[in-house]
Amino acid sequence: MKVLIVASECSPVVKVGGLGDVVGSLPKALKKIGIDVRVVIPAYKPVLDILHTWCGGILTRFAVHYAGQPQEVILHQTKLPDTDIPLYLVENEKYISSGGIYLDPSAFASSQEEIERFAFFSKAVVSMFVARDDIFFPDIVHCNDWHTGMISQLIKAEARYIELNRPAAVFTIHNLANQGISEEAVIARLNMPSIFDSNFVKWDLMDHNLDFILQGILGSDVVNTVSQTYSQEIKTPPALSWRGFMILKIPLKQKAKIRIKRPITAS
């Protein structure tokens, strides 16, 4: 089995919070049970500043069309420190690599600029690992939190367009409160018309915004939480207010289709 883990952090390369710890340790656990696992994260400027000290290099360059313009993407390949697990870093000067790890110190999606950054990153990941099979074509794409919430919908849109058997999508919730609410124009900037084939996307846009974490939940094949404890926490106050928001957004007829699975753990 081949698994691609996609996230905004991966310890010890990039770590702001617990997300980085999980993404840094989970691949090692999967590797031990014989899974071909790889990780892809953004190549933030602080990462690029030290990338030359690692045993890695540029794997490929290509263009990703976003907001009506072709953007050069450079894909770097190295390894997670002290492992033989491949680590990919996605570099783009305009959207990804011109700022810090997060544009807001709180790590919350507090600006449209932050949303655009991860919308672009998500499209770049799908362009590299789903629309083509010469780098690494996974059986499962494991997405984490709002930063990668659109990937499941982009996978489906890309697979419909090029008639590929799509990878399955797993979405892990680490922080339900950080939703990643975007203005609706981000859909047009992604430049993938077939994404409008998704009823979930069309319905979400009815209130003139797009909720990235909601799309991750609705678009993925399996949804889980970072821990069993957190799966219970998001069903009780004060997190209940966020869960209530999600329920209000999800049509009643679709609720039965959503199941929170047991968490993926690194133990």
From TrEMBL:
Domain Starch synthase catalytic: 2-238
Keyword match Glycosyltransferase: yes
InterPro entries reported for this sequence: Starch_synth_cat_dom (IPR013534)
Gene3D superfamilies the UniProt entry points to: Glycogen Phosphorylase B
Keywords tagged on the record: Glycosyltransferase, Transferase
Transmembrane residue ranges: none
EC number: 2.4.1.21
Lineage: Bacteria, Candidatus Azamiibacteriota
A Pfam family of this chain: Glyco_transf_5
Record's catalysed reaction(s): [(1->4)-alpha-D-glucosyl](n) + ADP-alpha-D-glucose = [(1->4)-alpha-D-glucosyl](n+1) + ADP + H(+)
Class of enzymatic activity (EC top level): transferase
Oxidoreductase in keyword set: no
Name of the protein in its database record: starch synthase
Gene Ontology molecular-function annotations: alpha-1,4-glucan glucosyltransferase (ADP-glucose donor) activity
